């Protein structure tokens, strides 16, 4: 199968240092090609162009199928496409190659996607999961809470996140997601006032738009309309006075210039991956 074309502006150096290091086992020419495909995957995921992302991820995997980061990236693409079985197969392969456990939260969330929350809880209870780094540990906690909700155990879902949410720093990179997950658990448990409070707390620290907390609260920012013409416009309701004449030596007063909608709207969009415990990272950020 022919490889997808890589945009000319994409350079191998854009790939994360960690992933570039993994590609050192390849020839220089092949490593550069794989790196550029992986950067293209990241761009496509950012734009939610999942078919394009898949094509580049598969091309990279065909060139470097024994590189853990490449297989992890392909797994992330399947995860974003909600192709759970394929994602799980790639994550397992990547974990077997690397010997690392950072993919356990994603694997557990995939089990939820496959309708097997019990298996997600089993993964979370393993010795390997207890040794996860802080970021992955929090992601696993979010997945466990979601699995409890899947099983109708809303009180247990709240209990699992309560201490983490209350003791967590608002400056932590996972603060918005953790607070949002705790709010969702509270809401499912019928504690609506507390849930609303934690949705607010999530929105307060969600500068990157990782959750839809602001949308739920009706706090979305109004779009800003930019005047691109610079042409003075008359006041809409102003009517000329037929008999009014300017004084011979008087200077004319400056006219007011209202803002015009030139059809350009400045408003950020965000990218969210599926799954309550979605901690998937784009290849350029890696871990994947």
What does this protein structure show overall?
The protein starts with 16 loop residues before the first helix and ends in a 22-residue tail after the last strand. α2 (28-46) packs parallel to α4 (68-80), α4 packs antiparallel against α5 (84-98) and α9 runs antiparallel to α10 (154-167). With 288 residues, the chain is mainly α. The protein has 13 helices and two strands, in the order αααααααααααααββ. Residues 244-279 and 281-288 have low confidence and may be disordered. It is globular, with a radius of gyration of 26 Å. The protein has a two-stranded antiparallel sheet with strand order 1-2. 53% of the residues lie in helices and 1% in strands.
What does this entry show, briefly?
The chain has 288 residues and is an all-alpha fold. The chain has helices spanning 17-22, 28-46, 50-63, 68-80, 84-98, 104-113, 117-124, 127-130, 134-150, 154-167, 175-188, 192-205, 213-217, and strands at residues 224-225, 265-266. Helix 2 packs antiparallel against helix 3 (50-63), helix 2 runs parallel beside helix 4 (68-80) and helix 9 runs antiparallel to helix 10.
Q: Report the principal-axis shape.
A: globular
Number of strands: 2
| Order of strands, widest sheet | 1-2
Low-confidence stretches: 244-279, 281-288
First-to-last CA distance: 24 Å
The level of helicity is 40-55%
Major pleated sheet: 2 strands, antiparallel
| Proportion of beta-strand residues | under 5%
> Which structural class best describes the helix and strand composition?
mainly alpha
Total DSSP helices: 13
Using only C-alpha atoms, the radius of gyration works out to 26 Å
* Strand/helix succession: HHHHHHHHHHHHHEE
What is the mean pLDDT? Answer: 84
């Amino acid at each position: 199968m022919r490889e997808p074309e890589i945009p000319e502006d994409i350079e191998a150096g854009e790939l994360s240092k960690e992933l570039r290091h993994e590609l050192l086992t390849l020839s220089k020419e092949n490593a550069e090609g794989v790196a550029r495909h992986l950067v293209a995957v990241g761009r496509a995921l950012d734009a939610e162009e999942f078919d394009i992302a898949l094509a580049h991820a598969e091309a990279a995997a065909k060139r470097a199928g024994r590189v853990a980061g490449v297989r992890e990236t392909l797994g992330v693409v399947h995860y974003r496409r909600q192709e759970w079985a394929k994602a799980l197969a790639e994550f397992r392969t990547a974990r077997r190659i690397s010997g690392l456990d950072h993919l356990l939260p994603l694997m557990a969330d995939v089990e939820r996607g496959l309708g097997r929350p019990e298996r997600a809880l089993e993964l979370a209870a393993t010795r390997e999961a207890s040794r996860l780094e802080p970021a992955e540990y929090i992601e696993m906690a979010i997945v466990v809470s979601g699995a409890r909700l899947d099983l109708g155990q809303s009180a247990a879902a709240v209990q699992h996140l309560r201490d983490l949410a209350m003791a967590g720093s608002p400056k932590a990179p996972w603060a918005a997601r953790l607070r949002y997950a705790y709010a969702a658990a509270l809401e499912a448990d019928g504690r609506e006032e507390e849930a609303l409070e934690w949705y607010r707390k999530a929105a307060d620290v969600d500068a990157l738009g990782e959750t839809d907390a602001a949308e739920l609260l009706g706090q979305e920012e109004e779009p800003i309309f930019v005047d691109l013409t610079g042409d003075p416009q008359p006041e809409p309701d102003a009517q000329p006075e037929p008999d009014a004449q300017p004084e011979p030596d008087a200077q004319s007063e400056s006219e007011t210039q209202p803002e015009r909608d030139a059809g350009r709207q400045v408003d950020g969009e965000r990218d969210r991956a599926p799954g309550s415990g979605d901690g998937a990272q784009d290849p350029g950020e890696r871990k994947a």
